[in-house]
Design goal:
Blueprint (H helix, E strand, L loop, with lengths): L2 E6 L5 E5 H18 E6 L4 H27 L1
Antiparallel strand pairs: 1-2, 1-3
Amino acid sequence: MQHFKITNMHTNKVINLNYNELQTMLRANRKDFFYNYTIQRIQKTNILKNIIAFLIVSCGSIALLMLGGLLDKI
């Protein structure tokens, strides 16, 4: 799900909303929304993706070290 950072240009107050909450806010304040607020999309990373990437890199590094050790013995 997409997340958005909404900033009030006059008070610099920041609100973090998901897509559905943003739609609700737009429906309520459509008339003056774009005069008072800026919208910025936020890319939220998943912790599980980071862990999997770390494991893949770690396994690759260990495999290269083992391969180097085998080539030294030849």
